[in-house]
Amino acid sequence: MKRTKSKMDVKTVVKAGFLVAISIVMTRFVFIMIPIAGASGLRISFGDMPIMLSGFMFGPVIGGLTGIAADLLGVLINPQGPYFPGFTLSSMLWGVIPGVLTYLFGKNKSHSKLFSIKFVSISVGISYIIVSLILNTIWLSQLYGTGFIVLLPARVLSAAISIPIYSIILNVLLKYLRRFM
């Protein structure tokens, strides 16, 4: 599999658009709220998965644009609180990080070797730690005036559950979506 640069043609834009739509639906309408200490504290959704899939399939540029579009359109369609630009940056990074890792480690590798469960798990883990555990916790801390350390334990628990689930689902999707790449 040879990746030189992101190819921005009509087919790629349409596929990325579908992933944006799936991400919006999964983020804004299909989620689980887990109450923590009597308050609605932790929201679990799989809306970041289509953005990561876009990064894996089309590279960091289109993955990042997919994340930006999903966040901005999602806020316009169904806001879940005040708009905060940090979350747009986070959404962009959900697509950029897997795309960069695929580009860096995908040279001269076949599809099956590149998207092995090990590579996908490492990519998901790195993305989740940077975006969800660090950046999104900082954004929530700034937005709501809650301490970073106060928010972190619940988010670590969410990461421990989400990383293996994301890894398995993305690995299966990448296996079956090979012909679209």
SSE order and pairing:
Blueprint: H1 10-28, E1 31-36, E2 39-45, H2 48-58, H3 60-77, H4 85-105, H5 111-114, H6 117-144, H7 148-176
Antiparallel strand pairs: 1-2
Helix pairs in contact: 1-2, 1-3, 2-3, 2-4, 2-7, 3-4, 4-6, 6-7
Structure description:
The structure is a single chain. Helices cover 72% and strands 7% of the residues. It has a single domain (10-180), classed as Arp2/3 complex 21 kDa subunit ARPC3 (Orthogonal Bundle), CATH 1.10.1760.20. The protein is mostly helical and 181 residues long. The mean pLDDT is 86.
Highlighted features:
7% strand; globular; Arp2/3 complex 21 kDa subunit ARPC3; mainly alpha; 181 residues; two-stranded antiparallel sheet; single chain
